[in-house]
């Protein structure tokens, strides 16, 4: 199944696999974010979810080129859709795994950390928070992703204030990534699907998983919950 030709969705056993398609940078603009959110919403009945990407990049962050040309009244849509996607993942009644098949920078890095587990390609790609190099501030909820998902202050400093580019072995050593996988994109995806299958096999109550996740990262949840798929404001999203 294709979602606006921006991502594909398939079932592998009990796992709902979403793949960002194409060889581009998978910049997060409203169209791609909306497509991902639709794909996440279609995961009902699965035991676990995996998000992966084709090509060199997992995601190279927000689509600043789109933002520079979009009408002012639509510019906030990108941040709102991203906040909504984080809310969707936190409220999802199943475990989630990010298959980091290539570079994950800025908002792409934040998207990785919004998952329960992270499997990363060992031979290529890095996590990189480019904001300090680009001269961009962090908005409140985005900063909260790193406060709650990277609790070690030194690791958080190195990502946010030094702009260190962390390859998989370093990210694993620092406890930011769960596992580094040798090989190509499909090897990483297969490893992530296998990890998701293990989690799905536990047979947990999905609603309990979601409520524990919200309770585990309460500050982040409080900042994004009003943008999620179940929030009343979701029905009034601006048209693009």
TrEMBL record:
SUPFAM superfamilies: ClpP/crotonase. One of its GO terms (biological process) is fatty acid beta-oxidation. One of its GO terms (molecular function) is delta(3)-delta(2)-enoyl-CoA isomerase activity. Keywords: Lipid metabolism. GO terms for cellular component: peroxisome. InterPro entries: ClpP/crotonase-like_dom_sf, Enoyl-CoA_hydra/iso. The keyword Lipid metabolism applies. It catalyses: a (3E)-enoyl-CoA = a 4-saturated (2E)-enoyl-CoA; a (3Z)-enoyl-CoA = a 4-saturated (2E)-enoyl-CoA. It comes from the Eukaryota. Its EC number is 5.3.3.8. It is an enzyme of class 5 (isomerase). Pathway: Lipid metabolism; fatty acid beta-oxidation. PANTHER family: ENOYL-COA HYDRATASE-RELATED, OS01G0205600 PROTEIN. Belongs to the enoyl-CoA hydratase/isomerase family. This is Delta(3)-Delta(2)-enoyl-CoA isomerase.
């Amino acid at each position: 199944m294709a979602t606006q030709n921006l991502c594909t969705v398939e079932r592998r056993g009990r796992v709902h696999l979403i793949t960002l398609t194409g060889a581009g940078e998978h910049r997060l603009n409203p169209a791609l974010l909306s497509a991902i959110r639709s794909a996440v919403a279609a995961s009902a009945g699965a035991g676990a979810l995996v998000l992966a990407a084709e090509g060199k990049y997992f995601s190279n962050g927000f689509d600043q080129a789109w933002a520079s040309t979009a009408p002012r009244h639509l510019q906030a849509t990108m941040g709102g859709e991203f906040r909504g996607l984080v809310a969707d993942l936190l409220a999802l009644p199943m475990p989630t795994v990010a298959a980091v098949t290539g570079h994950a920078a800025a908002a792409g890095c934040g998207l990785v950390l919004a998952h329960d587990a992270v499997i990363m390609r060992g031979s290529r790609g890095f996590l990189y928070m480019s904001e300090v190099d680009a001269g961009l501030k962090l908005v409140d909820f985005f900063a909260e992703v790193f406060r709650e998902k990277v609790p070690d202050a030194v690791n958080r400093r190195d990502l946010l204030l030094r702009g260190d580019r962390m390859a998989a072995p370093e990210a694993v050593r620092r406890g930011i990534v769960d596992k580094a996988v040798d090989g190509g994109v499909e090897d990483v995806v297969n490893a992530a699907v296998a990890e998701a299958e293990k989690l799905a096999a536990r047979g947990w109550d999905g609603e309990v998983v979601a409520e524990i996740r919200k309770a585990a990262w309460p500050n982040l949840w409080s900042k994004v919950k009003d943008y999620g798929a179940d929030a009343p404001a979701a029905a009034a999203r601006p048209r693009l």
